Structures are given as C-alpha cells and as structure tokens.
Amino acid sequence: MSGQKVRWGILATGGMAARFTADLVDLPDAEVVAVASRTEASAKAFAERFGIPRAYGDWETLARDEDVDVVYVATPHSAHRTAAGLCLEAGRNVLCEKPFTLNAREAEELVALARRSGSFLMEAMWMYCNPMVRRLKTLVDDGAIGEVRSLQADFGLAGPFPPAHRLRDPAQGGGALLDLGVYPVSFAQLLLGEPSDIAARAVLSEEGVDLQTGALLSYESGALASVHCSITGGTPNSASITGSKGRIDVPDGFFFPDRFVLHRDGQEPEEFRADPADGTRDSLQHEAREVMRALRAGETESPLVPLDGTLAVMRTLDAIRNRVGVRYPGETDEHPEETGEHPAETGAPVVTPA
What are the backbone dihedrals phi and psi of residue 42, each rounded to the nearest 5 degrees, phi first? Predict the structure, then answer.
C-alpha cells in the first residue's frame, strides 16, 4: 500500500461519522470511496454531502467491498460488536469508535476476530494520537515529575438530556461512563496502566443508566487515580498528574489539549503549547494518519492505541459498572464475563438513586 491512497469506507452517517469524514477528506493520501447506513436514503444523502462515490443501504455490502482498505465504524457503541464484526469477518481493516464495545466480552471477541484474520483493528481513541497528549506522556515516562503518585481527570456535560436521548437509553449503552468516562479512564490507563483495585459510586437515572459516576483507581505502585464523569453538570474537563518531583496540569479539555503546564519542584512553571501546524485541537486527522501509517507498514495494530490497552480499559469500565449496578440489555449476573468482573477484588455495588 506504500505510496497509494488509503481507501476508506464509512459505516454510519451520524454526527461522529460526519466529523471524521470532514477531516478525512482533507488528507491528500486518503480517499473515501463508500458509505453505508441502515437506509439507502441516509447513505445517499451522506455520500452527496461529502462527494463519496458509493452509498449502501446495508452494512454487509460495505463489509464485502473489496475496494475498501479500512472501515471507520461510527455507530452507537451498542452496535460496535455487530458492525465491526461484520467488517472483520469479511477481511476488512477496522477503526472502531470509542467506547470500543459495550463490555470487555464483546471487545475480546472483536480482538480475537482481528487476530485470527490478520486484519488491522484499532479503537478510535483520538486522545492517544493527539500530539500534545503524546508529548505529555513522554515527559511523564522520562521522569519529568518523578514517580506518579496521583492523577485526577473529569469530563462532564451540563445537559439536561431527556429520557429518550441516547445518553439515557440502556438499549444504546447510555450513561455518562461509557460515553464520557472512557476518556478519564483511558487517560489514567495511558499513564498508569490497568488498576489493581477499583471503588466507585454513581447516581443512576430511572432508566438505570449512570447520570454521574466517580471512581477511585488504585495501582500496585501506590498511585491513585480519581476519575469523574457526568451528564448532569458541565465540569472543567481538566486533568492533573502529580509525581514525586512535580506536577503537570492540563487546565481545559485534557483529551484534546492546546496547552499544559509542567511544575517541577524548585523551578518556574513551564508551559507547553500546541504547534499550530498540527491543526485544530479537535482534529481527528491524527488518528486517521496513524491508521494509514500502520496499514502502509503492514501492522495489524497501532503502538499508540494497542489492543491489549483497549481490552484493559474495557475491563476497568466493566468493573466500575459492576460496582455501581449498571447493566445493559443482554447482560446477566450469572456470567462474570458479562458483568464486568475485574482482576481487582470485587465488592458490593454502591448506588445512589437519582
């Protein structure tokens, strides 16, 4: 594939698909050749909007399209297992939106499919591909703040969201944790790895999804990570990492920062700012470039967003849901793999009804 344009298929036609496609069509080495939706009318409207030559009214036809090098899956996460699975079974490479799936069991199934078929698979955790986040991680890994002792991160939207909204719908994997909390959990995973113990509380809606959730993640190193998410109040969406020799503060939008501040003990604060040449702070081009780089290199997964890391995040999300009592249709208490059992010691869920 070296030197050739990478041919993309887009599966779904909602807001996230439109955002990604708008960024993708501006990349000179990318070509969007097909789009699929559950209805032909929606696919054709999307195709006309972005100048895409082929529009399909079903997912299977896109999955079988031999002219597609990689499919971007942008359905609600409740459909990720089905949509990405169709593509992988047909031999397509896949970039699948976050959260990767509803639970770790589904994630393990997709990863197993990809590894059996030799197809590329990556979660669209664009935060991991962001140049500023990568720079922050390098600083932490190089010991700029010493050994990490604690981490805080939050992501909250003001709402209110009505009961019929997808964020309140159990059938669509609704709730703050999977849609927003995946970011602070993934940020902690990036810098600290998988936790050894988890405690959590949540406020649940009448539908049984979490309106806001707080979790304390503990690590064998002695580090603690406090993460919070909400669909009932707008939070600073900030993060802070404290180490034995200093601290890094990300004051706004930690998952797509345009700046952060390094505080080294005994030194003046040092501010790091994004390079304007890297594009807008909310650009999705970084993850698209990483997918195309990996495909040209013949890689089946990205070192920036490794599949084992994605699986670890899903295990943590499952464990948090297990502790606060959030279950989605089809998940049962009789099957630990479906209820979020985690290597950490399990405990009784603590739930505060709304």
Answer: -65, -40
Q: Would you state the structure tokens that stand for residue 135, as one six-digit string?
A: 């720079």
For residue 336, the model assigns a pLDDT of: 37
State the CB neighbour count (10 A cutoff) for residue 184: 27
Which helix (H) or strand (E) segment is 259 a member of?
Answer: strand 259-264
Q: How many CA atoms lie within 13 A of 249 on its CB side?
A: 9
**Euclidean distance between CA atoms 8 and 318, whole angstroms:** 31
Alpha helices in 147-284 (DSSP H): 176, 182-192
Residue 127: partners with Cβ closer than 8 Å, 6 or more residues away:
133, 183, 186, 187, 190, 255, 256
Model pLDDT for residues 329-341, shown as the tens digit of each residue? 988 654 334 434 4
Task: Return the amino acid letter for 48.
Answer: E
User: What is the rounded CA–CA span in Å between residue 9 and residue 70?
Assistant: 6
φ/ψ bin of 282: left (φ > 0), alpha (ψ from -120 to 50), beta (otherwise): alpha
Active site residues: 98
